[in-house]
Amino acid sequence: MAIKILIASPLRPYTGADEVEAAGDSLGALLDDLDARYPGIRFRMIDEQEHVRRHMRVFINGEPVKDLRHPVRAGDEVCIVQALSGG
Amino acid sequence: MAKARGKTPPKKKPKPPARRPKADGNLLLIATRKGAWLFRGDAARQQWRSDGPHFLGQIINHLVLDPRDGKTLLAAASTGHLGPTIFRSTDMGKSWQESPKPPAFKKQEGGRTVKHTFWLTPAHANEPNVWYAGTSPQGLFRSEDGGVTWREFSGLNDDPQYREWMGTEQDGTPDGPKLHSIIIDPRDPKHLYFAMSGGGVHETLDGGKHWKPLIEGMEVVGGFDPKTVTFHDPHCVRLCPSNPDRLYQQNHCGIYRLDRPAKVWQRIGKAMPARIGDVGFPMVVHPRDDETAWVLPMDGQTVWPRTSIDGEPAIYGTSNGGKSWKRQDQGLPKAQAWWTVKRQAFASDRGAPVGLYFGTTSGELWASRSEGKSWSCIARHLPEIYAVETAQI
Lengths: 87, 393
Description:
The complex is a heterodimer. Chain A has a single domain (2-82), classed as Ubiquitin-like (UB roll) (Roll), CATH 3.10.20. Chain A has 2 helices and 5 strands. Chain A has helices spanning 12-15, 27-37, and strands at residues 2-6, 19-23, 56-60, 63-64, 78-82. By secondary structure, chain B is mostly beta strands. Helices cover 2% and strands 37% of the residues of chain B. Chain B is built from 1 helix and 27 strands. The chains are: A alpha+beta, B mainly beta. The A-B interface holds A 8, 10-11, 39-40, 43-51, 53, 55-56, 82-83, 85-87 and B 79-83, 85, 98-100, 102, 104-108, 111-114.
């Protein structure tokens, strides 16, 4: 079950594209598969305690999601973005 | 955690480093808030060629070349948004590979997260491919494959006593509490030191099985108890390559020297001119003379500006172990230069005379080929400089 994922610009050096595909039935599984395809990408957005990093955000169908157990289904829109912060 | 046992090892002559091809060039490794640069110098250290930026936009806290093989470069990286990682190059930065397993705490209830790797130290000359890393918040990590993968080192990161001494995130620097100044005794790979801001200086004699604080003689901010390890804020600790029993330290509260096996730091900063004081961040030692060291004093009055005193930057050097200090400012601006130099941003080379290099948070890179007697600016307009290291290639 391939799901389209929109990639935030700081993560595009990993994917080489702003939209990629990965498979999984939960957000965590989806990100595991994303990391298998683009090694290193997961740890830069999810910390070692399995939390979305402070300045990163994940939206599924427009809703913010922090729980990696959140289910995903075919047709869902997953969007990884960076929070509005910096300097 | 039990306290370290045994005595400080007796003095032995340091083993020479592994034999490498003769070096004919000098390299400065510059880590900044917005990327990394390499500056390649000629043998005379007069001409410097900039190579960079590498990792433009990424926060590089430390960039270090392995002196044992002369080719492995490690960069501690993060960004404003992304988590921390380690990049590795074996072709002098032509290409970089990301660590598949950078420093990270174990997953557990209430577990911590590494915000960034702050410090990188190649291990003992007889332990090729071994590196140590210090993180923010305070954590100690080790790699045994040249920086490719990392794991927590010893039980320190989860030790209840050490966790108490590490304090909270509010007990560290404005950019987070840090473990830094990881030092390996060149006579014994199991004899290590490290420092924490905050959390004091610590030592192991058995390769990390046991650690003990080494804070006696160090002062803390007025009104606090110096016996409380948490209150100690060593900014930079250096071991003298020519005498591994001698340590120097620039602390939040003064400049110190420690001659092992003694355990009481001596505040040698008391000999600094009263107008200058002995507050600062970095400290550098001479590679061949344990009586010679340099500091970059900064303003520690009232709200701690942490800038050159009166806007007149100067290095202060000692050639007698801290009994006296001499101002060295020839070539530096004479007024209105409000510099801050971070704890990792002052380094020496092994030339004769020794070259000194420092980088400012305003992005200027300064060099002296005369052990501090005179200075010249070799780069301007860089991003905020976090760290300066030297190497011979």
